[in-house]
Amino acid sequence: MAGLNVSFAFFVSIVAICEVVRQISKRFIPLGVYRCLAEELASSLQLCTCCLELRMLVELGPWGGGFGPDVTLTLLFLLFLVHGFSFGGASGNPMVSLQEFLIMESSFMATTVKILAQFAGMEAGRIFTKLLWSWELTDLHLIQNLMAFDCSSSIQTSLSQGIYVEGGCSFFFHLVALKFQHNHVLYRVPVVALLVTVLAYTAGLSTGAFYNPALATAVTFHCSGNTLQEYIQVYWLGPLTGMLIALLLFQGNIPRLFQKNLLYNQRSKYKTPKVKAVSVPAAVVKQIGESSQEEQQRARPRAE
């Protein structure tokens, strides 16, 4: 369990360091630059380093550390709780940034900067994690450091099935994220963390369940077993397709591309109240008419 304790200390340290970077950046740089660049950069680095360390525990833990999937899945859930509460407005996922652009919540320039920052943060996280493994603080790190130079692809299924798996994970992730986007963070973050854990449990053995192009690029693109074109099809085009289908199903349209709603009827927000016809007895109508005639006759002498 010593290796697990060191990994836990690593998780706490990297989250603390990234949070310090976020707080310092927020004070000294403009808010727009912070949200598009610094926040995404720090959050992507945090996401990548934690993912790589957790992936090592998943692969080596059962026979090298004496713990099974129950421990790693619990850690995954806790980590995404921490990510959800600490990321702020960042996502660390290019598909989320692209989705914000398509629903017109972000400009083209801001989206481009966010995506570049995410890829840069992921690559920085990969380099930092490899540096940590080179210190060989535990036996697990020693083994992982030896294996890092000859890693294997995360795609453990056929190419077409891999695309479906990543696209399906992306679809469910974005659909749930859209559904709970306006809920309070105390409700939204646990739901997303639970969904990520379930997707990792069901699809992790097939493709790694990344549904995040930047994370997949940093973690598995350099590994042998598949070509660059195959990696792009599974880890870029698959999540992109899933995100577009989820957005179209949730809203009925893609505002940046077309405004017409293809799935749902547009109803007015304000409904016109229905007036119920009331029948008036004939005697009452006759009495009202006689009263008005009497008032007109009284008014004539005064006018003369």
TrEMBL record:
Subcellular location as annotated: Membrane
SUPFAM superfamilies: Aquaporin-like
Molecular function terms from GO: channel activity
Keywords for this protein: Membrane, Repeat, Transmembrane, Transmembrane helix, Transport
Membrane-topology annotation of the record: Multi-pass membrane protein
Gene Ontology, cellular component aspect: cytoplasm; membrane
Highest rank taxon of the organism: Eukaryota
Keyword Transmembrane assigned: yes
Keyword Transmembrane helix: yes
Transmembrane portions of the chain: 6-25, 185-211, 231-250
Alphabetized InterPro entries for the sequence: AQP11/12_channel, Aquaporin-like, Aquaporin_11/12, Aquaporin_12
Entry's family note: Belongs to the MIP/aquaporin (TC 1.A.8) family. AQP11/AQP12 subfamily.
Entry protein name: Aquaporin
Organism from which the protein derives: Alligator sinensis (Chinese alligator)
Taxonomic placement: Eukaryota, Metazoa, Chordata, Craniata, Vertebrata
